[in-house]
Each structure stands twice: as structure tokens, then as C-alpha cells.
Amino acid sequence: MGFLKRVWYACAWTDELIDNAPLARTIAGMPLVFFRAPDGRVSALDDKCPHRLAPLSRGRITEKGIRCGYHGLEFNHMGQCIGNPHGPVTSSLRVTAYPVAERHGLIWAWLGSPAETIESTIPDLSFIDRTTPTAFIHGYLQIKADHLLMVDNILDLSHADYLHPDSLGGGSISRTKPTFEERPESLFVSWTCVDEVPLPVFRPLLPTPETRCDMWTEVEWFPNGVMILQVGAVPSGQPRQSGIDTWNAHIMTPEIKGRTHYLYCSTRNFLTEDADYNRAFGVALRTAFELEDKPMIEAQQERVGDVDLLERGPALMGIDTASVRARRVWGQRFRAEHPAA
Amino acid sequence: MGFLKRVWYACAWTDELIDNAPLARTIAGMPLVFFRAPDGRVSALDDKCPHRLAPLSRGRITEKGIRCGYHGLEFNHMGQCIGNPHGPVTSSLRVTAYPVAERHGLIWAWLGSPAETIESTIPDLSFIDRTTPTAFIHGYLQIKADHLLMVDNILDLSHADYLHPDSLGGGSISRTKPTFEERPESLFVSWTCVDEVPLPVFRPLLPTPETRCDMWTEVEWFPNGVMILQVGAVPSGQPRQSGIDTWNAHIMTPEIKGRTHYLYCSTRNFLTEDADYNRAFGVALRTAFELEDKPMIEAQQERVGDVDLLERGPALMGIDTASVRARRVWGQRFRAEHPAA
Amino acid sequence: MGFLKRVWYACAWTDELIDNAPLARTIAGMPLVFFRAPDGRVSALDDKCPHRLAPLSRGRITEKGIRCGYHGLEFNHMGQCIGNPHGPVTSSLRVTAYPVAERHGLIWAWLGSPAETIESTIPDLSFIDRTTPTAFIHGYLQIKADHLLMVDNILDLSHADYLHPDSLGGGSISRTKPTFEERPESLFVSWTCVDEVPLPVFRPLLPTPETRCDMWTEVEWFPNGVMILQVGAVPSGQPRQSGIDTWNAHIMTPEIKGRTHYLYCSTRNFLTEDADYNRAFGVALRTAFELEDKPMIEAQQERVGDVDLLERGPALMGIDTASVRARRVWGQRFRAEHPAA
């Protein structure tokens, strides 16, 4: 079907962009090279030298840009050729540059026309900016599945009761009816669990592991694949403000058809200075995402094959409401970008 | 071209089906999940949850069926949903179940309409039921070649003289003219070798390794890919009943286009209590099949490419008579199932 | 697009053809088997037994030819069947044989009609015949890129300044304007570098590593993919005859679409008896070709995709003159072979 272009895509965590090492990453079907200049500025260019199409990501970062590793043409952050060892710098020696933003610990790129850039449409992930390093977990996984199957996974968190029974399950989500809200730029889903069995990961943090809790699980999805997830718990009947709370981002950036960049992070309001806890919590999340979600969704993709899930006539239920709505919103955005399609 | 559906396919050895572990296996292009319920019954279902198409084989076996590992829907052996944690059990929540039989140490599935099941068409492999464990060798190989190339291999055993010279060769088959018989449900080929050099594997069992023998090699092929092979020897002129004899099954169950499940076994009437001999004989057969047949036939498949061998205009000889007839019978069966094709 | 057939292709170094071991190698889309008979003669046959299309390269070399490893048919060097254990030798039991030449340490095959063979079109690589073993380096690499991208690489040696800066670079080629000459059977490119910084590999051989040099770099390309490269240096102003000189072959034999056999060698007029130097020089070249050229050109191929580079509209410069001319010559040859195309 193709991908949205007129969105800000989260492409990489800033710490994936190492000094003096260009990063090759294909975003929504476009092979891009990301690099940080000595002055700190991050650039994103088409990862193809206009001369002979060698990937610029195999080249070297210079004072002023990047030099192709094959025949030495040099380009600045705007994609303009600024050095040609073999002749004049002509107008054909240029490569497309994409608007880039560095915000909330992520590198973002805009794949639409630069004139249309609306930077404010980067979702607000400022919870990342406010965290301490010891309360911050983040990671990257490459998934062999369509970005919408990944979105489905987070929009229907009842899966946690079956796919992650020992860490994020317990049954409370499956027993709770969610509410949905279509916002101007996003879709919001909320599970309010009352006097429920707490999630396994929360149990060691409660007065006793058996303490029943009120819990909240809120997901906000944006068409660029960003999903913000707040999950917390408090002993039943106590005020939410006194509870334990987590803010998470699950970002599903399309790579190519059938492949997705999965960027995730988590912050919290408890044990925020505890590096050991942070490490253990990070391992628990990584285990759930890499060893439980990833193989299940990749196996699902194999069964779905080369079409959208809905074309296969799945037996939809109430728990699929949000993912059906998200596809509708995404489809409207896509058709707006491709009027003829 | 496609596959026959109205046949019983041998899908797995019963000991491949471990308690509490669903087995995913694609048969004739259909991804199936096999599992054994606590009461011992074996089921075969489409390996796709109707909800979101996750493979049921990634789920868990329950008291009454299998539960999807993604969102927890539970199905019984008839494919009926018997549990939905998220809402009502509706008629759309069902998955196709296939008739299953457990016979002769194998799990069989019928891929045609259940109403047409004719269980009697499972070939008689009761020689497997009569053997002792120490006179029984069996195994499974996945072959990257079409099932008909695998059938060719056994219908023309003269290959043993060249591909397996040190174990199953010796030249006797190549020197002997086979006879053919078309039976109602099968094709029968027989080599009667008179006063010949014995097969290498038989030599240690004879009065002397050089003892010349009368030998018999009989293959019966069924359109579902089952091939029964009897091979034996007796010192020249003595009655066949006093000889050494082996009964073997070579089963070529199509997986997908260009891939075949190869299930093989062997029993015998000598050294039937000798576990060491059994082990050594098993290794010899495995070596021949895995290191000689498999790479040759997979390489042949690469040369043949994406069509049937006969479309390549091979130079057929007398030794190809049986495989040409088998293709004709198979093709008649296929066209009977697909009148329009 | 396809490949030229009416050329002599260099298929393998003679020492790749081990006694009693057939060599399978696909040349210009044709799977061939090469083997050396006990009398020393080398043959090239279609690597497909006419009987059932098993690759002959999985068979055994005999006194008089090669025997198929599947059912034992034997063929001589002309592809005629000379043994059939299963029946008469008929005219359909034959396989195409290709004219073969063994010259300059290489096995050559002619893929056009045998009647058209013009052996004189094997380029003169007699510098190989005149070398000592300790002044001879040769090797083979399989490249996942089109043969014309490999030809581009050598026809534009300015890449050495950027891709091989520490061994074959230094900037002299990029600073020098080449001259071009179209010869009847080839294309000739020459860089005459005057009073230049020597190539890094030459520096230890000069009076001092900083000694400025006159250098010559001459490439001759033939449409069969053979490229002869002479590179040498002499302290500035001294006669070329007194300098150090190297003769090299870079041979780009097409395998299949998008894959190329890269056969390379180098000889020289200095330290010709120094086995240690020879070994170190061989490692330096192998490193440049395998760890610098190969990954760059394979990455370029991924960006170019399934068409010829020129269809992608690359921004050509003066340094691309030779590769554009070579494509034109190659295209003329190709259209002459395929008048309808």
C-alpha cells in the first residue's frame, strides 16, 4: 500500500548516532543516511551518491558534511555538493536532504516536502526529557512485520494477559472494558481497572504482592507510529497521585513493506535512582518485547502474508475497536497524501 | 500445479508429537497445527487463529483443546471456539479441523472435505505394528525438492548402484529388468535378481560376504506419497522364506511447492533384538538418505527449476517407466479433484 | 538484459580444477561443469544430465569422461554418452559441450556456436606465463554485483584515492586527466602522472617514501570482461624502463544476473624471488579487493537494483567517460548477437 510521508518519523535514538559513524536506516521505504557533523548538527540525506549510487553511509563524515567513500564527492547537510575532486561542482551533483529534528532523545525526519514541515506534529514525549538516567530504559528492535500489526499489539493490551502472563499480565486488562476517544491528531484508549489483581511487575512494589489495586492503562496512538503508554497502580481506593506510575513510548516506524523499526522506552516515578532496579526492569521489558511479542507478531505476519490483515477477513471483536479505528485514521491520512490511489 | 487434497497424508511420526507441545507442520500447502489432548486424542487444525491469524501452534494445549498464545481464544478438537476471554463465543470464531487418524506409528490427516473421508485408503503399513523396537528404524527429513522427484528416486532404485554404491548398491538392480503392475489404488514395481552380488549392507549377514544371492526388491507407490519397499536376499537357489528380509516405508508428503516431508522407516526379520545392530543400521540408512539422496535430489531440483521435470524434456529410458506411470496416475487424480484445471 | 555468448570467458584459474574433482561454475547464466580427464584435457559440459537433469558436477571423473552420480550415465568430453548401464546409448543421451582453452593459467570457455570459435580473441595475458611463482599473486572472489559495475570500478581508478587510500591511493590518479583510445577489440585508458606522490604500496620500494615519482597506469578492457592493468613508478624524470612495474589482470566474468566471478592476478618486475614480499603483497591486494571493493560495489548494486546503472540517471562526470564507452561497445556486441532485442 505504501507509507505516509507527511509525518515526522522517529528514526533512531540519539545515542545510536555515534560520532564519526554514519548510520544507514531505511525509513518508510527510503534508504537514508544519518550523521552528526562536528558542530553537532544531525543531517538526513538520501543514502545514494548521485554520481554512481554508492551508499553515502559507507563514506566518511567531514568538517562540513559527508564524503562518498567510492569517488570522494562531498555533500553538506543540505545535500549540496561542496567538493568534487574530479571536476566542477554542478547542479546535478546533489542529493535530497530531509528536515531533521532532535527531540526527546530521538532523531526525527520529515519525508514529505520540506515546505510542508509542521514541526509541532512531533508528539509530546517530554516525559523522556524529565527522567533521570537511572529511571530510563530504551531500546531498538527490528521487526519482520508490518507497522500496523505492531500498532495493533499495543492498541489491544489484552494480549499481555496471554503473551506476557508472568510480567505484564494477570487478567485485569482482559476483564476491563476500555474506552476510546478520537482526538484531533491521535486516538486515545483507556482501561480503568478497579480493585484488580496487580500486574506481576508491580507486585514487589506493593505493600504485599497480593494487594489488590486500582490500575490505569492509557494508550495514545499517532499516525506516525508513536504510541504513548501510561500504566500505573495504587492500592484499591487510594488516590491515583499516590500510586506508582510509568510512562512509556512504543514507536512503530515503518522500514520497508513487512518490516518495522520498533523503538521503545520506559520511565517511572518510583526507584528513580536505583540503577540495579532499572537494569532488571529493562531486562524484563526487553525479554517481553524480544522473546514474546516479536516472534508472535512475526509469525502472525507470515500467516497474514502480503496484504493488510483486514483483507484476510479476521473475526473482529470488541478488543479490536481501537486497531480498526487506527487503520481508518491512517487510511484517511494515506488517501489524503495519494488522492489518486 | 498444486497438490492432491482427497488423500490421507502421513504428517508426522507419532513420537514427533510431544505432550503439551503443539506441532506446526504445513501439509500440501496448508499450515496445520497438530496436538495431543490430555485424553490422548490427536487433532489437526488450521494453524491460524480466526481472530488475528496468529499461529495456534504458538499457543498452549488445554484440558479441552488449544488456547491461542496471543489473545487467549480457546478451541476444541473440532475447531469450535470454547472460550473467549473478551466477549461472546460467536460462530465466526472457528477454525477448520481436519480428520485425523493415528495408525502404524504415524499421524495422518485428510485435507479434503470431511464428508468424503474414506479411512480405508490409508495404505496398510501394519508391518510397523508387528516389529520389535530393536528392529525398527525411523526418521524424518525435510527436503527442498518436489514430492514427485522424491517418488522418482524410489521408483527407480537403479540409482542405488551409483548414489549408494557402498551400502545399497552393487549393480544388481541395474542389471535386472523390473516388472510393473498397475493396481486399483497403487503402482507396483518388482526387481527379481537371480544369483547376484548381494547389496553391501547384506554381506555381513551371509555365510560369506561373497555369497551370491537371489534377491527381491518390491516397491508399491500410492498417490498420497506412501511407498512400501520390501528388500531381501537368500543364498542363490534357497527358498525366499528362509532369507533375510526388510520392510520399509518411504513417505513423500508434500509440504509446499518445492518442499517435501520425507518420513522413512525400516523393519526386518533378522537380528530383531539387537539394539546395537539396529543403531548401526539406522546410521547407515540415515547417511544414505541425508548425505547422498537429499543433496542429489535438491541439486536436481535446482536444475529442473519451477516446473515439472517432464516439461524439461528429459531423455527418458526404460528405468523411468514407473515414474512416468506414477505421474500419470497422480495427474488423473489431480484432474479429478480439479475438473476445471 | 542477458550476456554475451560469442566471447571466450575466463572461468577459473587452472589450479582451481583439482584432479578427480569436477568444478561446478555458472558462466553467463549457463550452469557448467569443468573437469580434467586423466590425460590432462579439460572439458566443459552443461551441468545437467540429459536423463533427469541431475548436475553432472556431483558425479565422478572416469578414464574417458564423467559419470553421473545419480544413475550412472557416462559422457565424454564432447558430451556424447559413452555408457548407459540401463539400456542402449541413444542420440538423445547427449549433453552440450563447450569449446575450452587452457591458456595463461586460466580455463577459458566459448559459449557461442562451436563453429564460430575464434580462439585468437583470447586477450594476450602472456605476462602471466613469463612470471616466477614468487612474483605471482592470483585469486578469486564471487561478487554479488553486475559485471558492468565491476568493470566501472577498474575503468575509473580514481576510486583508489578514496576507497583504498592506504594502499593504492594518494590522490595522483584523481589529479591526472586520463586519455582514451578505442582499439579494434578493446578500450584503452591511460593516466600519466608526472612528479606525483607515489602510491602507498610503492613507497617502501623507492629511495625514500617521500620520493616523488612519474607514474603510469594503463587499463585495457575487453568485452569478455578481461581487463589488463599496468601500473608502475620511477623517481621523477628518470626513464620508465628503470622503474618498478606491475602487470595485473582483473577479470569480470558474469555468473548470473547480479553476480560476477572476479578473477584477479598481479605480477611485477621487482623482488621477483622474494616469497615473503609476494605473500605480503598478496594479502594487501586481497584486503583491498575483498574488504574495500567488494562491499562497496555490492552495496552500490543494492541501490541500483534490478536495472543497469545508466537507467537510474546517475550524474556522470569526466571520470565516467571510459565506463560509458565500454557500455556502448558492450551493447553493440550484445545487439549484434541478439538482432531482435
Topology:
3 copies of one chain form a homotrimer.
Chain A: E1 8-13, E2 23-27, E3 30-36, E4 42-46, E5 60-61, E6 65-67, E7 74-76, E8 81-83, E9 97-98, E10 100-103, E11 106-110, E12 137-143, H1 147-155, H2 160-163, E13 179-182, E14 187-196, E15 213-221, E16 226-235, E17 244-256, E18 259-268, H3 275-304, H4 321-337
Antiparallel strand pairs in A: 1-11, 2-3, 3-4, 4-9, 5-6, 6-7, 7-8, 10-11, 12-18, 13-14, 14-15, 15-16, 16-17, 17-18
Helix pairs in contact in A: 1-4
β-strand percent of chain A reads 25-35%
Structural class of chain A: alpha+beta
- Identify the biggest protein-protein contact and residues per side: A-C, 23 and 26 residues
Along the chain, the helix and strand elements of chain A come as: EEEEEEEEEEEEHHEEEEEEHH
Explain what you see.
Three copies of one chain form a homotrimer. Chain A is α+β, with helices and mostly antiparallel strands and 341 residues long. The first copy, chain A, is built from four helices and 18 strands. Chain A has two domains: 8-121, Rieske Iron-sulfur Protein; 133-337, Naphthalene 1,2-dioxygenase Alpha Subunit, Chain A, domain 1 (Alpha-Beta Complex), CATH 3.90.380. Chain A has helices at 147-155, 160-163, 275-304, 321-337; strands at 8-13, 23-27, 30-36, 42-46, 60-61, 65-67, 74-76, 81-83, 97-98, 100-103, 106-110, 137-143, 179-182, 187-196, 213-221, 226-235, 244-256, 259-268. Chain A has a seven-stranded antiparallel β-sheet with strand order 12-18-17-16-15-14-13. In chain A, strands 2-3-4-9 form a four-stranded antiparallel β-sheet, with no helix packed on it. Chain A has a four-stranded antiparallel β-sheet with strand order 5-6-7-8, with no helix packed on it. The longest helix of chain A is centred in the C-terminal third of the chain and has 30 residues, at 275-304. The mean pLDDT of chain A is 96.
